[in-house]
Amino acid sequence: MRLLILGGTWFVGRAVLREALARRWHVTVFNRGRSGPPPAPVEHIRGDWERPQDLVRLAAHGPWDAVLDVAGTIPALVRNAARALAPVTGRYVFISTISAYRDWPYAPVDENSPLWEGDPDLDPGTRRWDPDAYGPLKVGCELAIRREFDRHVLIMRPHVILGPHEYVGRLPWWLTRISRGGVVLAPAPPDRAIQPVDVRDVARFTLDQIQAGGAGVFNLAPPVGRDTYEGLLIACVDVTGASCEIVWADEQWLKAQGVAEWTEIPLWRTLPTAWTMDTRKAHAAGLVCRPLRETAADTWQWLQAGGRPVEHERFAEHGLAPDREAELLRRWRLSRTTP
Ligand SMILES: NC(=O)c1ccc[n+]([C@@H]2O[C@H](COP(=O)([O-])OP(=O)(O)OC[C@H]3O[C@@H](n4cnc5c(N)ncnc54)[C@H](OP(=O)(O)O)[C@@H]3O)[C@@H](O)[C@H]2O)c1
Question: What is the pLDDT, as a whole number, of residue 39?
Fold first, then answer.
C-alpha cells in the first residue's frame, strides 16, 4: 500500500503515520517541515499546499493508492491538492468533522443529516481559526474532493478527538488541573454523556477502511452514552493519582456566572444533543473505541514525559484560570448556604 499523507506531524497526522508504518505501508509525508521532522523515518517531501508549484512537484513523486488529507480546511486549497493529485492517486481520504453538520449540536446527527452549505472554490483569505466558519469550510473541502475524485472518496467525521499530542488542549487541561489536587469545580450533572474519540482509534479505523477499499462517510466516536463527564474526571484522578474533591456546580448557575461552555470548562456542553452523534455505521464496519481511561492514562504519560503539543492558537482558549475557579467555588458555596 502506498499512502501519501498531507500533514502528518501535529496530532491526528502523527497517529495515522505511526499506524501506517506499523502496517509496513510505504508512506510519503508532505508538509512544510516547520513542525519538525516526521516522528518516524519516511519519505518526506517539503512543500506548502498554498503554492501550486509545490503540489505539481509533489505529484511527480506518485503514484499512490490513496492520499490522506488530515488537516485541510480551506476549500480552494484542498481543491488544488485534489486536482494536482487526481492523476497519480487512487482515492482521496479526508478527515472532516462533526462540525460539518448544520444541526450539530442542536440535534442528534447521523451520516445523512443535513450539512452546512459549502463552496468548493472558497478561499476566505484568512487562516485564523473561526469556530463559525469551520463547519462550512470543511463542507466546502468535502465538495471539492468529491468533484475531483467522484466516488473514490472516503470521509471521516470525528467527534472531539483526544489523546497524546492533542494541541487543542482539552484533556491536557483537565489532567493538569486535576493533578494539582484540591477542590475542583465541575459542571453538573456528573452523568452527562460525552463522546470523545481517541486519536489512535481514528487512525486505525481510517487505515482499515483504506486497506479494505472503503468509500463514503463515517461518523467516528464511541457509542452514544458509553462515557460520562464524571467518568472522564474519575479517569483523570486515577491516572494522575491526585487527591481532590470534585464539586459539581449547577450548569445554569455556571452559565449565569458567565463561564464559557466548551472552552473555559473543556468538553462541557449544556445541550445533551451535543453528544448524540450516531456512530453505528462505523462500529458495524469495525470501529473499536478504547476506554476513555486508557486515553487519559496515555495522555498523562505523554505529558509526564515532557510531551508538548505544537503551538496552536486554540490552546490558550481552554481552561479556567486558578483564581477564577477559586472565586467561582466560593460563590457557589455561598449560593448553597444563603437562603
Ligand atoms: N481536534 C479535534 O477535536 C477534532 C475533531 C474533529 C475533527 N478534527 C479534524 O482533525 C484534523 C486534525 O488534524 P491535525 O492538525 O492533527 O493534522 P496533522 O497532520 O497532525 O498536522 C497538520 C499538518 O499540516 C502541515 N501543514 C500545515 N500547514 C501546511 C501548509 N500550508 N502546507 C503544507 N503542510 C502544512 C503541518 O506541518 P508543518 O507545519 O510543518 O507544515 C502538519 O504536519 C483536522 O482536519 C480537524 O478538522 C479535529
Answer: 81
Of 70, 139, 171, the residue with max ligand 1 atoms within 8 A of its CB, to mutate for a pocket test, comes to: 70
Apex 17 CA angle, 299 and 64, nearest 5: 160
Going by CA atoms, what residue is nearest to atom 21 of ligand 1?
10
Distance separating alpha carbons of residues 71 and 199, to the nearest angstrom = 13
Please work out whether the CB of residue 171 comes within 6 Å of at least one atom of ligand 1.
no
Complete domains list, the chain, with CATH? 2-158 (3.40.50.720), 170-195+225-275+291-337 (3.90.25)
d(CA 189, CA 177): 19
**What are the tens digits of pLDDT across the range 278-292?**
999 999 999 999 999
DSSP character at residue 65:
E
Name the closest-CA residue to atom 43, ligand 1.
Answer: 7
For the chain, the average pLDDT equals: 96
Place of cell 503551538: 311
Residue bearing the CA closest to ligand 1, atom 15 = 71
Q: Which amino acid residue places its CA nearest to atom 25 of ligand 1?
A: 7
From residue 148, how far is each of 81, 90, 314 by CA, in Å?
10, 11, 31
pLDDT digits (tens, 9 = 90+) for 291-326: 999 999 999 999 999 988 888 877 778 899 999 999
Q: What is the pLDDT of residue 307?
A: 87
Question: What does the longest C-alpha to C-alpha distance in the chain come to?
Answer: 74
What atom of ligand 1 comes closest to residue 10's alpha carbon? Answer: 20
H/E run at residue 283: helix 280-284
What is the distance in A from the centroid of ligand 1 to the CA of 312?
10
What radius of gyration, in Å, describes the C-alpha atoms of the chain?
21
